[in-house]
Write a structure and sequence with these properties.
Chain A: Belongs to the ELP5 family. The structure holds 2 protein chains of 2 kinds. Helix content of chain A is about 35%, strand content about 20%. Classes of the chains: A alpha/beta, B alpha/beta.
Amino acid sequence: MAELIRRALRDGALDGEHAPALTIKDSIDSPFGPHVFNHVLAQLSANILAGKSQSQGIVLVASSWSPSFYFDMLKSREKDVASFQKWFRVLDCYTDPLGWKERLMECGSITNQSPKASNAVRVCKDVRNLDNLFSSILQLGKELVGQGKGRFSVVIDSATEMIRHASISSLAALLSNIRSHDQVSCAFWLLHSDLHEIRVTSVLEYMSSMVASIEPMTRSASGQRGNYENLSLLERNSKTGKFHVRLKRRNGRVRLMSEDFCIEQSGIKFTPRSGDGETISQSLVPKVQFNLQLSEKERIERAKVVLPFEHQGIGKPIEIYDGRQSLNENIENSSTAEKLPTSQDPGKGEIIYFRDSDDEMPDSDEDPDDDLDI
Amino acid sequence: MSRVWHVQPCWDDANKPFTLATQNLTPSRLKAMDRSPNLLDQALGLHDGESTRSARVVLIEDCVETSAAFVLHHLIKRSLSPLSSAAVIFVAFSQPFSHYDRILRKMGCNLVALRDNKRFTFLDMLTLECPGENQPAFLCSLSDEDAGKICKGGVLELYGKIQKSVEVSLLPGGSRSITILIDDIFLMEVAAKGSSSHVLDFLHYCRTLTTEFGCSLVVLNHEDIYSSVERPTLILQMEYIAEVIIKAEPLATGFARDVHGQLTVINKGNSDRLSLQNKMCSFHFRVRGNSVEYFYPGSRT
């Protein structure tokens, strides 16, 4: 479903429809929202560079990370860094979001440490004024695509930071204006769901056509974090997690899908969901120096072994061999318990019991060595 | 076989503390002392001779049962190692200067001398009650809006002092590693009259210093204060922005004489986030008079 998201953002908005919008939400138990966010941003950038997307540029509202972080991140993934000016703009809400540095510089308390002015970055010094923020976004977008019919994407790296400085209704109005603008192709933002009330998260989800939720692979039963007994769970959750996507179609139908993801050195990798039982059992296996688990082949072989006196219950009456029949009768009589009606598969295991003599009583307590005269 | 790592103190034969300025230590002995490995340094990714990793946000969490103040002291000592030129800016809401000076002297670190050398800047915030300009701190008689403005003025002024200290501490060429330590965030929130929003704004601006100047930011907060809160926004927000989280907790089995608690270090990766993999480790500790022992569970005989 990560691929589905990529395609939806790449294809952009249909004429007369609002732009597709994605909410990426995570929590402290699985704080991989920034990883997914950067992954989606990198994919959208790649599509723009390749000319495969409706969007011709990206306007990034950076609140949680500095503009230089995103430039470095994109440079590490894309070779063509010289073209940044053509398709990438950053509204810098990170460096001085409340105008503190400007005020301190005016009274001489600090010196101006602003980085070199860049055409690709515009500093915002009042993130509380969302109307001005929206105007700045549109101006940066029009620098990329002009006044024509070109479209650009709007990316907000932290809706959480914006809600801290403005009301949810103001933010909802901003996002609604973004989605409904003729020149916006798509939009996505990141939200830390455990920092907000449920209604705040719900508002943003309602405004989104796609919601991607990041959850831990295994939840701790005790709820305690950092406990040594839960360290293995913490380690597992620090590298893997679950990725749930909910897509809302135009006809109102909702599609739910899930994937697993793994954080590797090269980035985030998405894989089809594995079984929950396997996940839980693997997490409970202690780390020892010998192998406590079975391979797939060993598991199959073990399943094939038919235990003695085991009731198979296939529907036919099963006679349990009690050892009182002779060997020849055992061979001729194919309905004995030890020769169960099974397939001719040579790999299937079975237990064959040959009674020593006809006089031997089943489950005899006599020691066969009693008659020895030593 | 037990493996016990010690943070070695500096003592003379009379078992008296001494000032670093008068210590007759050979360079090799100094180097050996500062390079003595311990599990905490290894968990933080501090290599031999390295005082701190630059441009990181480190969150230290503790609780009433298990104080993590020793981690703060260790990071101060590590940053002010005589083998490096790093500087420390310490924002103190919790204790006066004499308290830290006494503790660090026992660990072989003379804060008075280092303060005189401009390597250690101590910002005493014990009396901070969000002052405005010549305003008394009787905020209860003011409206919420006015009280908020005064609080914001206080944290704004504090941030200005910190950035100014960073600019002053920088060596020509900007090569000096600077660590900003805040002890502690809860008391800062108290000083800000419970305004976690102002505290978060302040922390955000301090975080921008890690980007602009390559500083490290180390903050201490108490997790159990927020444990009963339905949505502990402040500490959760700090955990989101921190690249390294050091949690000090009591043992799950209860009080023990020889083991004072356990430390869990969660290293989320480099500050540039290009290294995405998390690393975690957990070990026990025992706080002695002038040193701390770190060891893996079950490794002590």
